[in-house]
Each structure stands twice: as structure tokens, then as C-alpha cells.
Amino acid sequence: MSYTTEIMDELNVLMLFDVSNHQEGIKVHKTAEGNAIAATKRLHKKGLVSQDDGGYLTDLGLEASEHAQALLMILTTD
After folding, report:
1. The whole model's pTM is what?
2. Which residues contact 75 (CB under 8 A, 6 or more apart)?
3. Is 38:67 a contact under the CB 8 Å cutoff?
4. I need a surface site. Which of 42, 68, 73, 78 has the fewest CB within 10 A?
5. Within 13 A of 14's CA, how many CA atoms are on the CB side?
6. pLDDT digits (tens, 9 = 90+) for 6-65
7. What single string gives the DSSP state of each residue in the chain?
8. Are 69 and 19 spatial neighbours (Cβ–Cβ below 8 Å)?
């Protein structure tokens, strides 16, 4: 199994969240790129964000975002 374009888009949306501030959400506007809009809708359907246009991370979304951010840090550290 490998990362698909759709999964990468979802990971990129998860990276937009500030995991240190649970009161801060995001809003993906209708003028955003189509892949970001679709990824956010998929994350909502999967139960990771509270609204289909972003909102706040759910508990599961927070865990996923923390892991995504940690993985990026690991992979980009020399």
C-alpha cells in the first residue's frame, strides 16, 4: 500500500491545524483549490474534522494531525 494523491491531500489539510491550540480551527473556503475542498469533505466523512468545510479537529482528527506532523518532522530532519 502507498500514499495516494487523495491521502496526501488529506494529510496536507491536517497539517493546517495548530495541534497546540484546540480552540483554533480552519475554514476551507469555496474559492480554495478543489483538491483541498474534497480532502476536507473526506476528512469530515471519516470523522476527523467537525464540519465538511473544516471546523475543528475531533479527538481522532487531533491524533491523526499530531501523527502527520510528527511524521513530516521525522522525514524532513537531516
Report:
1. 0.92
2. none
3. no
4. 78
5. 27
6. 999 999 999 999 999 988 999 999 889 999 999 999 999 999 999 999 999 999 999 999
7. ----HHHHHHHHHHTTS-TT-TT--EE--TTS-HHHHHHHHHHHHTTSEEETTEEEE-HHHHHHHHHHHHHHHHHH--
8. yes
All three cell numbers of 73, joined, read 518532522
Q: Which residue in 57, 37, 39, 38 sits closest to 47, CA to CA?
A: 57
Is there a contact between 61 and 47 (Cβ–Cβ < 8 Å)?
yes
The residue type of 53 is D
